[in-house]
Amino acid sequence: MRSLKSTGSTSRRYERQIPLFGPEGQNRLGDATVLIAGAGGLGSPVATYLALAGVGELVIVDYDVIQESNLNRQFLHATASVGLKKVYSAEATLRSLQPDLSIVTYPEKIDASSAGRLVSDSDLVVDALDNYEARFLLHEAAWNAGIPFIHGAVEGFCGQMTSIIPGESPCLSCLIPTPPPASPVPVVGATAGVIGSLQAMEAIKFITGTGKMLSGRLLIWDGLSGRTDYLKIRQRVDCPVCSHGRGS
Ligand SMILES: [Zn+2]
Predict the structure, then answer these.
(1) What is the C-alpha separation between 71 and 74, in angstroms, rounded?
(2) Average pLDDT for 78-94
(3) Dist. CA 35 → ligand 1 center (Å)
(4) What is the C-alpha to C-alpha distance for residues 38 and 86, in angstroms, rounded to an integer?
C-alpha cells in the first residue's frame, strides 16, 4: 500500500489541497498508479503536477532521447540532459520534486505487442504522445482493459483535450476516424503547458472523485484568440474500437 501516512510532513505538503477533496481523496491519490505515455511537451506538466499532487506511482513510457529542439517546452529535462533517454531525465527531475514518488520507466516504443502490457497495471492512462500511431494503439489497449484514457494534443498555439471513459463516452476512434500522418509540428511551450495542465486536472478529478469529467466532449483551446470551444463527440456505429466489445 502506498497510502499516505498522517505525518506532520505529509499534512504540511498537501495542506493547501486536502480541503478540496479531503484526506480520503489524498489517500486515493497516494494509492493511484498513472501511466504517462510520453515524457515531452505534454508529459512535462502532466508528470510534474501529478507528482506534486501526491500520486503514488507514475509509469512513464518514452523511447526518445532528449534533443536540443525539445527544450523550448519539455521542462522535465535540463540543458545538460541532451542526449539522455527522456524517461531517466524525467525520473531524476520528478524524484527531486517528490522523493516519496514511485516511478516505473519504460524506455521503449509503444507498438501492438507492448500496448496491452504497458497499460495493464495502471488505474489511468494519460496520452501525452506526439504521434497518432502509438496513441491509437495505446487507446485501444486502454479501452479493451476498461481503463480511462485522457487524450491531449497540441499544435502551434492550439490544443485539444478529452477524457475517454470506457462504458461512458465514445472513444478516440469515434472522434478521429483517420489518424493524420506523422510529422513534426511547430508548438509553443505554453500551449503544451495549458493542455498538459488540463490533463493533469482530469486525472486528479478522476482519482479523487471530484468534479465532472470532460468526457463525451472535446475541449478545443485556441491560444491566439483566447477562445475555448467544445465539440460533442458522437459514437460511430461502425467504430472498430467501441461499437462492440467491452465498454460499448
Ligand atoms: Zn469508437
Answers:
(1) 5
(2) 98
(3) 21
(4) 9
In the CATH scheme, what is the code of domain 17-156+175-211?
3.40.50.720
CB 124 within 8 Å of CB 58: no
d(CA 137, CA 113): 9
Q: From the CA of 234, how far away is ligand 1's center (Å)?
A: 9
**Ligand 1 center–CA 75 separation, angstroms:** 34
pLDDT band per the 50, 70, 90 thresholds, residue 139: very high
Q: Note the maximum CA span of the chain.
A: 54
Q: How far apart are the CA of 62 and the centre of ligand 1, in A?
A: 26
Enumerate the domain spans of the chain.
17-156+175-211
Residue in 142, 136, 144 with CA at minimum distance from that of residue 176: 136
| Report field, pTM of the whole predicted structure over 0.85 | yes
